[in-house]
Structures are given as structure tokens and as C-alpha cells.
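Question (not urgent): is this output format expected?
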Amino acid sequence: MQRFHKPEDEKRMVVILNEDAYGAWLDAPAERSMDFLRQYPAGRLVATAPG
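Got this back:
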């Protein structure tokens, strides 16, 4: 991640949404974007090795 997050650069993160929120996310004005940033439940995340 160091290649993507240099100290002087703007930071970005992935936003994980439920399917029912896709339309609202795409139609929301920029000032509402923070409304969608919620911690995703760790138990619902799955990591797999590339291959």
C-alpha cells in the first residue's frame, strides 16, 4: 500500500456497500458521501490468496 499512500498525497479507501445502497451512493452529492462510510462487519469479509 505504500505505493498508493504517499505521505503528501490525498488518502482514499474502499467503500463496501450492500446492493440496496448502490443507487443512493451513485446519486448522492459529494457532501453526503460521508453518510455511507460505515465499518463493514469483519465476519462478512473473506480474504483469499491470489492464484
